[in-house]
Amino acid sequence: MPSAFFYLFTMSRTIGTKNESSLHRQLKLSYAGSGGRTEVEFSGFVADAVGPDGERVEIQLGSFAPLKKKARELASLGPLKIVCPVIVAKRLEFLDSEGAEIGSRKSSRSGKIWDLFKAMFYAPELPLVPGLEIELALVDVAERRVRDGKGSWRRRGVSIGDRRLLALRERILLKRPCDYLRFVPFAKK
Predict the structure, then answer these.
(1) Which residues contact 154 (CB under 8 A, 6 or more apart)?
(2) Within-domain flag for 154
(3) pTM, rounded to two decimals
């Protein structure tokens, strides 16, 4: 029987995909679309996807801080979209140390569109970069957790494994700084 780590991450030999989660890979392929490409190099940086229309796409599951230099460079070469997935519903799947599923349940936590600001905290100037758009992808995911005794003490030794996309509910595109007014409750729209 394969070990639990077989289920955690798919190893690959291409640029930037060694520890890529299924969620990242699925979104990357979705945004590339048919006729698009993934893992394309531009001026020393690798874009996650390039759509058939030439738009570069960067999927960012965490903080935007690592994108400061990369986003400016890629946007200077043509249109760039940063996709920020917001997990609005999560199903937790529990595996034993051998990789066999032992149960599942719905997570009580859910993401909000406000999570964008947590991601942008160390790169607040990105919305001002010419040619750059930010898109919130509201998604449902399944998260595998392995009861292997190696995870955080807060989770009682359960390790977080792979996340995979179950559904893409909605996309919210933010093209210009004025599009962010939707987050200000008293702003005129």
Answers:
(1) none
(2) no
(3) 0.83
Q: How far apart are the first and last CA of the chain?
A: 57
Contact 21, 28 (CB under 8 A): no
Helix (H, G, I), strand (E, B) or coil at 178: helix
What is the rounded CA–CA span in Å between residue 145 and residue 49?
Answer: 28
Gyration radius from the chain CA atoms: 18
CA distance 111 to 49: 24
- Domain containing 64 — which CATH number? 3.40.1350
Sign of the CA dihedral 59, 64, 65, 71? positive
The 10s digit of each residue's pLDDT in 1-35 is 344 333 333 333 344 556 789 999 999 999 998 88
Q: For residue range 76-87, what is the model confidence (pLDDT) as tens digits?
A: 999 999 999 999
Q: Confirm whether 71 is domain-assigned.
A: yes
Taking the CB of residue 26, how many other CB atoms lie within 10 A of it?
18
Range of the domain at 46: 5-91+110-140+173-183
